[in-house]
Write a sequence for this structure.
């Protein structure tokens, strides 16, 4: 049976083309992921509307007990509303599916804490509007965002399509990660589950000598640790190799 050790459910934004391939690549032996999709557009109203689909998605992923944990895989979508908004999503998953729930925001914060870092440089594919929201939310949680830079910062919010983000090659994440790095930050965060990152995490850590957290990498790490699976996974950064 696929997923003989563990089966992880993924709630994926409908236009996301990166999360599922990256999460499948990150699965250790005997672990499998299964997903359902949530209607989405990369604007603040579109991010807020995602919550209305969580009940339906929870029912699908919990059918016949298929998944042992369910992850809401949208970074900014799970940061919206701070702790209360995140708790609302997790509570709805767990009440509906009778299964543990996490979000990408849950995972990223847990990763920062496990790495013992507070000063973060953030690289994203987002617009300036979304970046400002992400900065404010992370700072509300006690982290210092030393710098945040988005690939599509100059694009008007209504003109950004999620498909544009998914088409970006991983070298874009590498370049942005190097550009936001300075002597002030303790770690680099590559934000967005539709942003290709896993191919360059190890190289970015090597060039900066700092831990790198990405949305999908952190989500997989947190899901595995919640399930008690601690296999070191080589090639995807300090988080999955050592913690």
């Amino acid at each position: 049976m696929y997923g003989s050790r563990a089966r992880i459910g993924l709630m994926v934004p409908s236009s996301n083309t990166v999360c599922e391939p990256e999460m499948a690549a990150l699965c250790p032996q005997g672990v499998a992921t299964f997903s359902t999709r949530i209607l989405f557009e990369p604007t603040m109203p579109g991010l807020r509307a995602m919550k209305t689909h969580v009940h339906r998605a929870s029912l699908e992923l919990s059918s016949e007990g298929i998944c042992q944990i369910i992850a809401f895989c949208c970074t900014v979508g799970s940061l919206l509303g701070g702790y209360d908004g995140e708790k609302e999503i997790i509570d709805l998953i767990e009440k509906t599916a009778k299964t543990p729930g996490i979000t990408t925001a849950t995972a990223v914060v847990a990763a920062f804490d496990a790495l013992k870092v507070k000063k973060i440089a953030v690289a994203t594919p987002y617009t300036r509007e979304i970046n400002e929201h992400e900065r404010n939310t992370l700072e509300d949680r006690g982290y210092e965002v030393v710098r945040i830079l988005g690939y599509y910062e100059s694009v008007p919010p209504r003109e950004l399509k999620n498909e544009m983000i998914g088409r970006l090659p991983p070298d874009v994440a590498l370049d942005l990660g190097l550009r936001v790095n300075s002597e002030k930050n303790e770690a680099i965060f590559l934000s967005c589950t539709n942003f290709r990152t896993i191919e360059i995490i190890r190289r970015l850590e090597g060039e900066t000598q700092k831990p790198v957290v990405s949305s999908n990498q952190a989500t997989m790490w947190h899901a595995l640790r919640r399930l008690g699976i601690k296999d070191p996974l080589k090639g995807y950064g300090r988080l999955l190799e050592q913690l």
In short: The chain has a mean pLDDT of 96. The first strand starts at residue 6 and ends at 13. The chain has two domains: 6-105+217-242, 107-214. The domain at 6-105+217-242 is CATH 3.40.50.12500 (Rossmann fold).
